[in-house]
């Protein structure tokens, strides 16, 4: 962790040295996670993802219930079934178990893809706003507050609230 922080500090120092001494470096930070969770479009996207997740969870529960019912039936009738019927029901339990596992894997992939797509769309809409604010304020650098190795930033250079306000009113 210390090594990462030192690398981040060196990177900031090198960037500062690379810009001519006469030019003034102005820096801002943005909490992109907060833009996603607090902006109206972000809230809408997160709600759609929650709804999709809830649907997948419900579908998984239904499959799990079917599997448990089949297992219970097999356990209760195990000693009264013919060999053929026992083998058939055992096969059905195995098939349902495999189907449930596949569903869980597919649901996980589907939810992850939906999350990536939703966040990608939000990013496409947010970046022009961030760039616009950066140009208006004459900013040289804008850091993603918590993903850039930054450990401290004065609230005065945080543009998150401005980005959220503009994002909420953007079409």
Can you describe this structure?
There is one protein chain. The chain is mainly alpha-helical and 171 residues long. The protein has one domain (2-169): 2-Layer Sandwich (Protein Binding, DinI Protein, Chain A). Helix content is 74%, strand content 5%. It has five helices and two strands; from the N terminus they run H-E-H-H-H-E-H. It has helices at 2-18, 32-38, 40-77, 83-136, 160-169; strands spanning 27-30, 141-144. Strands 1-2 form a two-stranded parallel ribbon. Helix 2 packs across helix 3 and helix 2 (32-38) runs parallel beside helix 5 (160-169). The two termini are 41 Å apart. The model is unreliable at 1-14 (pLDDT under 50).
Spell out the blueprint of helices and strands.
Elements: H1 2-18, E1 27-30, H2 32-38, H3 40-77, H4 83-136, E2 141-144, H5 160-169
Parallel strand pairs: 1-2
